Amino acid sequence: MTPAELAPVFFAAAAVILLTCRLVSLAAARIGQPAVVGEMLAGVLLGPSLFGLLAPGLSDALFPSELRPVLYVVGQIGLVALMFAAGYEFRAHAGRGLAGTAATVSAAGIVLPLLLGAGLTLAVHGHVGVFVDGVSPGVTAAFVGVTLTVTAFPMLARLITERGLAGSRFGTLALASGAVDDVTAWLLLAGVLSVAAGEAELIVKAAGGLLLFTAVMLLLGRRLLGALMTRPGLREDTRLLGAFVVLLGAAWFTDEVGLYAVFGAFAVGLAMPACDASERVVRSTVPVTQVLLVPMFFTYSGLNTRFGVFGDPAVLAFGAGAVVLAVAGKFGGCWLAARWRGEPGGVAARVGALMNARGLMQLIALNVGLEAGIVSEALFTVLVLVALVTTVMTVPVLSWLDRRERAAAGGSGPHQHARTRQRTPRRTPRRTPPASASGADDTTAEVPQ
What GO terms are given for molecular function (predicted)? Predict the structure, then answer.
């Protein structure tokens, strides 16, 4: 198929994708689910699990194999822009005084899912057909474990903002922990892929690339972005152009060294200065990113998802086990860590619920593994199921916690109660550890909205 022949196919497919994503997202919103849940479901519905099953001829005509690389590239552009905004969102809402608690929660949210996911995968080797021939079971197990450590940071940031929780203790704690989780997960994923390739040079390349990228961003990137955003007299389109040049350059470099484009995009968002010009630049990218570009990625993922594999009882049992252990490791681990650091039960439970969502970020990791040839169709589908279930359960769990807390507070709003509780003074705030200090609470309460 020539480019001239492919263009009209892309336009038709894009129209169907955008319309389907919007309709399913509206339906999801009717039952209280965030837009990302609808978009994930829409991608699955447009794939072989439903559309390809009901109308295979029409599906092949609308989504020919030649179109998939185009959807992938357009979706990657959307992911880069989305993670740029997510990095800035974290930069804008990051509070001080929670470093110790955030590190503990993040460590628990990484170690437990990693061990549980890898352990389950090794236990079923030879019994469940989810492994790729020629790929070490250890690599597959490590990949599953790493994907279960991921947190849906963009969704987490959006949920916290939409629910008015950006200044709350658990909102700020979840943002900080989620960001550390995802950065760590990408580094672990780079290591797994390097081992899978059997080339130690790739690990050295990724580690060296990370050090070089960090140095360049700290010494040059932040200054350049600061000058772009704060220099008087610059036109808005010039600021936007400059930011995108830095963004795409960072995405290219991190992709080349094996850290992947989304990591570089997130770092550029973090490096943006906190000012009105930065806010305008970031916000200008959001509508096109969310409405036009990201749905292409969800559809690309959906085209690789085949729920027919659950017709095999062994795969179905493995999928159910993966969901249970994913929730136990992430929700349970983060809840226990927060409680161990002295957080109230309500704060710890909300942090666990927010950190448990995998959403878009797990789909990104799965597609990276698929492109690397270490993920089978069956394993891809099992982990898509994990992403869907853990993402769908987030809002209902948060709503249940709100209702329970509202009842315990005698009818006051859950968010108001959470904020009031976080500002309760202690007798010696400056000598209290950061996890429970009122000074930390006051700092997070003053984070700009």
Answer: antiporter activity
Q: Report DSSP state, residue 328.
A: I
Token representation of residue 261: 């484009």
Q: What is the dihedral of CA 290, 292, 293, 297, to 10 degrees?
A: 90
Q: Is 126 exposed, middle or buried (0-12, 13-18, 19+ CB in 10 A)?
A: exposed
At 305-315, the pLDDT tens digits run 888 899 999 99
Query: What pLDDT, in 10s, does the model give residues 194-215?
Result: 788 776 677 778 778 888 998 9
For every residue of 99-135, DSSP letters joined together read: HHHHHHHHHHHHHHHHHHHHHHHHHTTTTSS-PPTTS
For the whole model, what pTM was predicted?
0.79
CA atoms within 13 A on the CB side of 163: 27
Question: Which residues, 6 or more positions from 264, have their beta carbon under 8 angstroms from its beta carbon?
Answer: 80, 213, 247, 250, 251, 252, 253, 254, 255
Q: Over the stretch 27-54, which tens digit does the pLDDT of each residue have? A: 998 988 888 888 889 999 999 988 988 9
Domains annotated on the chain, with CATH:
3-407 (1.20.1530.20)
Q: What is the DSSP letter of 144?
A: H
